[in-house]
What does this fold into?
Amino acid sequence: MQKLTQLSPDTLNRIAREERRERIKKREDILAGDEIYLNLQHDYLISFFKRFSNRIEAVWNYPVQAAQRGEEGVLLLKITIDRKGELLDVDLQESSGSDDLDFEAIQAVYRAAPFGPVTSHWPHEQMKIYAHFQYTLANRYIYGR
It folds into this structure.
């Protein structure tokens, strides 16, 4: 029983990341008005979100120094665009704990812009997209929920 309560630091970090991710997912205000998570569950946004994700992933890199230091993490960005897909703002909502990882994710969004027009079915003048950027030494991922 005592061994079960003595978790390794890696396991504790993974648990903390999962708890943080779950806490973010349950925020009711994220889906209000012109704010939306990056995901493929919104039928009329699938094509746009694929294009959006692909453009970012094409220019998003794992910072060499961060990888050499063994840094991993998940960050949350709020990315604001207009109806034409022009980037208006990128705001760090939750840090990965690494300035290098946070900076590279933000810069990747700027490098990827513009994203092309948003579907005419989107009823707002702006779209505020909440996107998680996950860095692991084995890979990197971008996702909403």
